[in-house]
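Exercise 7b. C-alpha cells:
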C-alpha cells in the first residue's frame, strides 16, 4: 500500500494564552511607563496602547537599535531586528513560542512591549498587520517538526532561534549559515544565556555571500552530509532581497549539491515594487510593506513576475513543488484560532509560502 504524502505544514491552531495581570506589573507600569513614554515619544506609546496598527514602524525607524548584548546596531540588519520584535510580541500569547528573541532587540523596547500587553490583551500589539511574518515562522516550525529531518540548514539564518526552542528529532543537527558579524552576536547572546539557549551544538557556518558560495563553506564542516536526503533547508525572508541571478544561482546550488529528496521551505512574494508590478500595490497591506521596506533601507529586488507562479519558476531549477500556500490559505491554516471565525492577523495578497523537494 502506497504511503500517504506528508503534509509538511499541518499543525494545531495557535494556543491563546490568558493575559496575566499582577501587582508587581501594575506598579511597574505606574513607575516605568512615564519614563518609557518620554524615551520613545508619548505619541508612539499612545498609539501602541490604544490604537495599535503601524506604530512598530515608527519604533523601528526612530529607535536606536541596540540590544541587551549591545551589538545589534553593528551586527544585524534592521529587517532581522524587526522580525525578532514581531516574534517576541507574538510569544506573549503563544503564537510563536519565541521568548528568546527578546535578547536580540532593544531592552527598552522589550519593556515597552511587556507594558503594552497589559493594556491591549486580546491580540499581540501590531500583529494584526504582520500576519506574513507570523505565518512564516509557524510554517517553518511545522516543516521541521513534520519532516523529522536528520539535518536542518537555516540559510540566511539571521536571528532565528529554532535550534534552541523547538523539540528537534533525536540526533538532528542544525547548521546556521549567515554573515560572520550576525553569528558573532548570536553566539555571544547564547553564551550569556545558556539556561535558555540550551542547544549549544549548533554549527555556525560563516559566509561572505558577495565572495563565497555557501555550499563551499558548508562542505568544510565535517558533520554535514550532502548525501543525506533527510535534510530540511529553510530559506526564509531572503528571496525578495536578492536579484534574480543571485536567487537563481542559490536555488541551483541547492538542487545540484544537496541530495534528491531534500526539502526546502521558503517564502516568496509577487512582484509589486517594480514599475510593471505596481498594479499589485492596491491593498493597504502591500502599501504598508512598501513603507516598511523604505523605512529600514533594505529594498525588495525580486518577486514572482506577473503571469508567473512558483510552479512556473522553481521546477526548471531542479525542484518539485510539494506545497504552496497562498494568502487565503495562510490566514485559514496559520492565523485562525479554534472557535473564532476571522484570522487574528491579515496577510498581504502578494505573499506565498512554498515547499520544494530536490528532484
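Sequence design result:
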Amino acid at each position: 500500500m502506497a504511503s500517504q504524502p506528508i503534509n509538511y505544514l499541518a499543525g494545531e491552531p495557535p494556543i491563546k494564552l490568558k493575559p496575566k495581570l499582577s501587582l508587581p506589573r501594575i506598579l511597574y507600569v505606574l513607575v516605568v511607563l512615564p519614563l518609557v513614554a518620554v524615551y520613545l515619544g508619548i505619541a508612539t506609546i499612545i498609539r501602541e496602547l490604544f490604537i495599535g496598527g503601524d506604530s512598530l514602524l515608527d519604533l523601528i525607524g526612530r529607535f536606536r537599535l541596540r540590544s541587551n548584548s549591545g551589538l545589534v546596531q553593528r551586527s544585524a540588519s534592521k529587517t532581522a531586528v524587526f522580525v525578532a520584535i514581531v516574534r517576541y510580541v507574538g510569544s506573549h500569547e503563544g503564537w510563536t513560542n519565541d521568548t528568546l528573541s527578546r535578547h536580540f532587540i532593544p531592552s527598552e523596547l522589550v519593556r515597552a512591549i511587556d507594558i503594552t500587553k497589559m493594556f491591549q490583551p486580546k491580540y499581540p500589539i501590531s500583529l494584526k498587520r504582520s500576519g506574513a511574518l507570523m505565518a512564516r515562522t509557524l510554517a517553518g516550525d511545522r516543516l521541521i517538526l513534520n519532516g523529522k529531518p536528520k539535518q536542518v540548514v537555516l540559510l540566511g539564518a539571521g536571528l532565528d532561534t529554532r535550534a534552541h526552542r523547538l523539540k528537534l528529532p533525536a540526533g538532528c543537527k542544525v547548521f546556521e549559515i549567515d554573515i560572520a558579524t550576525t553569528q558573532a552576536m548570536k553566539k555571544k547572546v547564547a553564551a550569556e544565556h545558556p539556561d535558555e539557549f540550551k542547544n549549544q551544538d549548533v554549527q555556525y557556518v560563516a559566509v561572505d555571500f558577495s565572495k563565497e558560495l555557501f555550499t563551499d563553506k558548508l562542505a568544510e564542516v565535517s558533520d554535514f552530509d550532502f548525501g543525506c536526503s533527510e535534510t530540511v533547508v529553510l530559506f526564509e525572508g531572503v528571496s525578495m532581497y536578492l536579484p534574480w541571478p543571485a536567487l537563481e544561482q542559490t536555488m541551483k546550488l541547492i538542487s545540484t549539491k544537496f541530495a534528491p529528496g531534500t526539502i526546502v521551505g521558503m517564502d516568496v512574494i509577487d512582484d509589486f515594487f517594480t514599475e510593471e508590478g505596481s498594479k499589485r500595490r492596491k491593498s493597504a497591506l502591500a502599501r504598508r510593506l512598501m513603507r516598511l521596506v523604505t523605512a529600514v533601507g533594505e529594498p525588495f529586488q525580486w518577486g514572482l513576475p506577473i503571469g508567473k507562479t512558483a510552479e512556473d519558476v522553481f521546477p526548471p531549477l531542479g525542484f518539485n513543488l510539494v506545497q504552496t500556500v497562498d494568502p487565503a490559505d495562510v490566514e485559514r491554516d496559520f492565523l485562525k484560532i479554534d472557535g473564532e471565525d476571522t484570522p487574528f492577523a491579515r496577510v498581504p495578497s502578494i505573499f506565498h509560502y512554498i515547499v520544494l523537494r530536490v528532484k
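Instructor comment: Residues 23-119 form one domain. The chain is about 40% helix and 10% strand.
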